[in-house]
């Protein structure tokens, strides 16, 4: 799975002609499964990519949500980062993956803008979704924040992949609703096509 995520994230960076990237994939324990750096990355990119993934794991939310929390509760995030010995990087580019009620790991990307880094992390996860769905029974949860009122092509693509399998259930946590799953009616507003 880690290699699929890595290859797809790097391919997305090449496709979008982004600056050289570093991609780090951590397991649920925070151990590095794989890290790769394209030629030409700057010196601290590996540490930043790791910090994005590690921060997501440490607080159980994607690094975009962590970034929003840092803006709202700067003292809290600063205190947690101090306890983590400065290993959290609270900016977009770190994406959590959870399956069947358990944490599987996180992807961290650094090298371009934080938004572009996150796009590459999502592309990596999207490429591995089929493999993950085959491997994990029940539901899969991706810690991807949704923008309220805006369609999300990634979520729509994921839904199409699991739509024909009634044994699969999809729960999506958003940056706005981190404590509970998004309900069907709320989720429908984010889809390019309605749920059936």
Task: Please describe what this structure looks like.
α6 (153-162) links the parallel β5 (140-143) and β6. α1 (2-15) packs antiparallel against α5 (114-135). The chain has a six-stranded mixed β-sheet. It is α+β, with helices and mostly antiparallel strands and 196 residues long. The model is unreliable at 143-151, 166-182 and 187-196 (pLDDT under 50). 44% of the residues lie in helices and 17% in strands. The protein has helices at 2-15, 45-59, 63-72, 74-83, 114-135, 153-162, 184-188, and strands at residues 22-27, 32-37, 94-99, 102-110, 140-143, 170-172.
Oligomer: single chain
Head-to-tail CA distance between termini:
30 Å
Low-confidence stretches: 143-151, 166-182, 187-196
Shape: globular
Mean of residue pLDDT values? 78
Could you give the order of the helices and strands? HEEHHHEEHEHEH
Radius of gyration: 16 Å
Descriptors:
globular, six-stranded mixed β-sheet, alpha+beta, 196 residues, 7 helices, disordered C terminus
Provide a compact summary of the structure.
The chain has 196 residues and is an alpha+beta fold. It is built from 7 helices and 6 strands, in the order H-E-E-H-H-H-E-E-H-E-H-E-H.
Question: Secondary-structure map with pairings?
Answer:
Layout: H1 2-15, E1 22-27, E2 32-37, H2 45-59, H3 63-72, H4 74-83, E3 94-99, E4 102-110, H5 114-135, E5 140-143, H6 153-162, E6 170-172, H7 184-188
Parallel strand pairs: 5-6
Antiparallel strand pairs: 1-2, 1-4, 3-4, 3-5
């Amino acid at each position: 799975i880690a290699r699929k995520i890595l290859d797809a994230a790097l391919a997305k960076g090449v496709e979008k002609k982004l600056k050289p990237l570093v991609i780090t994939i951590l397991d649920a324990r925070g151990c590095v499964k794989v890290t790769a750096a394209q030629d030409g990355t700057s010196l601290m990119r590996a540490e930043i990519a790791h910090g994005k993934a590690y921060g997501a794991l440490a607080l159980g939310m994607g690094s975009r949500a962590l970034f929003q929390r840092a803006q709202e509760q700067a003292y809290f995030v600063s205190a947690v980062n101090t306890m983590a010995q400065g290993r959290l990087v609270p900016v977009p580019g770190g994406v959590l993956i959870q399956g069947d009620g358990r944490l599987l790991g996180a992807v961290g990307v650094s090298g371009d803008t934080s938004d572009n880094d996150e796009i590459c992390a999502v592309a990596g996860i999207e490429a591995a979704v089929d493999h993950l769905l085959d491997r994990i029974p029940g539901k899969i949860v991706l810690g991807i924040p949704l923008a309220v009122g805006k369609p999300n092509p990634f979520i729509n693509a994921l839904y199409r992949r699991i739509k024909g399998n009634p044994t699969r259930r999809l729960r999506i946590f958003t940056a706005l609703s981190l404590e509970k799953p998004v309900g069907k009616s709320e989720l429908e507003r984010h889809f390019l096509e309605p749920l059936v």
